[in-house]
Amino acid sequence: MKKLIFLSVFLLTACSVGEVQLTKPAVSCEHNGEIYQSGETITQPDGCNTCICSAVGEIEGCTEIACEESVTGLANPAAVKCSVDGFHYEIREDADGGQSGVCIDEADKECDGWEYFRGECLLGEDFIVTDEVPAPTDEASVELDVPLAE
């Protein structure tokens, strides 16, 4: 019996001295090429909606709220007019690093974006190239009845 008690005490001591910790592997989620840990908030590309990486490695609890427009995100009026009128708008950079917008129609005619916006440059159907200059006709002449000074 003494041997059994000694063996039991020895085994209990040996187990408490070795302190073995069992840990679960870390749970993570992958989203858009990024790794997130369990419980971490994932910001969506729109910048205002979020999701949570769950304890089982699933992306959950995503919000679906409408994002407010940023004041710094105001559109360039020249670019908007060009696009709304059905043309292509592109930003070009010069050798000094300055930028300017160009509006381009379907025939590849280009206007400075702001000149197009102000109506100083015409594109599309408004811009008609012709080699012929119409000759004046009698119908186009105007007679003025102006009294002559005596």
Could you characterize the architecture of this molecule?
- Helix content is 20%, strand content 21%.
- The protein has 150 residues and is an alpha+beta fold.
- Among the domains are: 27-63; 75-126, no CATH class.
- A 3-stranded antiparallel β-sheet has the order 3-4-5, with no helix packed on it.
- A hairpin with a 5-residue loop joins strand 4 (50-53) and strand 5 (59-60).
The percent of residues in helical segments reads: 10-25%
Secondary structure class reads alpha+beta
Order of helices and strands: HEEEEEHEEEH
How would you describe the shape? elongated
**Distinct helical segment count:** 3
How many β-strand stretches? 8
Biggest sheet architecture: 3 strands, antiparallel
Write down the overall mean pLDDT: 74
- What gap, in angstroms, lies between the N and C termini? 153 Å
Q: Low-confidence stretches at least 5 residues in length (pLDDT < 50)?
A: 4-16
Report the portion of residues in β strands. 15-25%
Measured on Cα atoms, how large is the radius of gyration? 39 Å
Give the strand line-up of the largest sheet: 3-4-5
Draw up the topology in text.
Elements: H1 2-18, E1 28-31, E2 34-37, E3 41-43, E4 50-53, E5 59-60, H2 77-84, E6 88-93, E7 99-104, E8 110-112, H3 113-117
